[in-house]
Structures are given as C-alpha cells and as structure tokens.
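Attaching the record inline, Q. Sequence:
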Amino acid sequence: MSDKITKPKTHRGKRMLAKREPKIIESSKKALMLRGATASLTSLQFVKDLHAIKRTHSTYFGQKHPFNPFEDVKPIEELTQKYDLSLFAFCSHNKKRPNNVILGRIFDHQLLDMIEFGVEQFKSLIEIKNSKVMEGTKPCLIFSGDVWHQNEEYSKCKSLLIDFFRGESVEQVRLAGFEHALSFTAADGKIFLRSYKILMTKSGTKTPHIELEEIGPSADLVIKRTKLASADLFKRACRTPSAAKPKKVKNMSKDVFGSKLGRIHMPRQDYRKLQVKRGRALRTEKTPKKSKISK
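Structure, as predicted:
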C-alpha cells in the first residue's frame, strides 16, 4: 500500500479522511475477524462467536487468507489501515499447532502486540441452548487468579483481552444494564473463558438477587506464542494527549471521600477594626469631653 497522501476529490472522501484523523477522545475500537487458509471448524467457530459478541464493533471476512501474522504481519497492517480497524483475530490450524486463534492490536497502522492461543474444550453459542443477550451489550469483565498480576506475559494478555472485549467507554452504568459477564480465570497454565447472562430477580430488598446462566462461548485457552510490544512503544501507545487531560483548577482539591474542598486567600486583617460584639470589660472607655462653660 502506498504511503502517498492525496487530497480527496469528493465529499465522501473528505468525510472518510476526517473519520480516520487522530482524535483527542478515540471512539470504541473495532476488530477485524479473519479466516486462515487452513482453519479448523473449532477455531473458525470460535472466531465467529467473537464476531457475534462484538457484532456492532467488528468486521468478518470469511474468505481464506493464505498468510500467518507471526510469519508476515504486513497483510494485517494493510487491511486494518484500509478499513480503519485497531484489533484483529485470525484463526488457523495445522498439525503442530491445532485449533489456533491469534488476537492482536494495531497502533499507528503498525503491529503493537499479538498472542496466539490454542482452543480446547470449546462450546459455541449454538451448542448452549439458552437465551442470549442483546447485540451491543457492554460486558462486565471478570479476571480471576493471581497470575494476572505476577506474570508479565499474562499482564499484557489481560490488557489485550480488556481492549478486545470492553466495548464502548461510558461514564455511568445503570444496574439493569449489567446483562453480560465474561469471566477469565487463569490457573494450571490455562485461561478458562466463560460467558454468562446476568439474571436479576426480586430479593425483598433494594439489591436484587443475582444468578448467572451460561450462554457461551466456553473455551480453555492455552498461550502458545507471543509477540509483545517494547516498553517504549507500549508507553507511546498508552500516552494521553495533553488536551484530553483534565485542567487543574486553582485552589481546588478533593479528599479521600471525593468531597470537593476549596481554599480562599484573604488579605491580612487588622483585628482591632473588626466589628464584633465585645464584653463591657474589653471596651475602650471614651474620654469625657470637656464642657464649655459660657462666661
């Protein structure tokens, strides 16, 4: 793909370039779902289920793509730049690495990081016969296990999974909006992915009774290969522009409880001139005026 920048000739072209321009507050990340040349039914259905979860923020290409991101990442970078996408999922299968799925991120039209997973004990959305959640529902992400904080590889994997599944960034969420929960449990060298529908029933109190119903997909993921970003590149990708940072207000602060505190600066006062009620003993006696005696 050529790096030559040409001016748009139509209004549609101008709108497309305006959408691709860097923004101070980025919109929700969209994913590209790709099928490899030798994808198995398991890996292909897993990617289709990911597309179903992220249907409003993903694009699925069902044709076969004869490349592997770990061998040549250039086609992925070109496709994500063409369709203005920042995440990708790629499924493949061979004798050495069966049922493979690669999840990755793109930054500045170049690969940031990617992780290859082996899919085991897979159950798709179709196999689990339960009522599903609505499309576009923002999931509640749950990470269980100490290894997420103890291992750098798992820590970067957690960051990748959050970027992939978090959906749109919102400031407030109502209680009834919690309908979908994605659980990632790291134990015994595997990541156990489970998807639940949150059911709220009456409990007799203000807080409802919560029940979880498995809806799929369900899979045991094993990390095979990784290609992580360098410390400098990852720091540059996580940098917040100065325009997006909240401006500091002078003489205003917050305590540990979130209460807003203000500081007022006043000039030095002369306490002798303050109009306060004083006791009789503290009052200064006025000197009696001399009366004028007329002669």
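The two ends are 118 Å apart (CA to CA). The helical segments are 11-20, 41-53, 74-82, 147-150, 152-165, 231-237.

More tomorrow.
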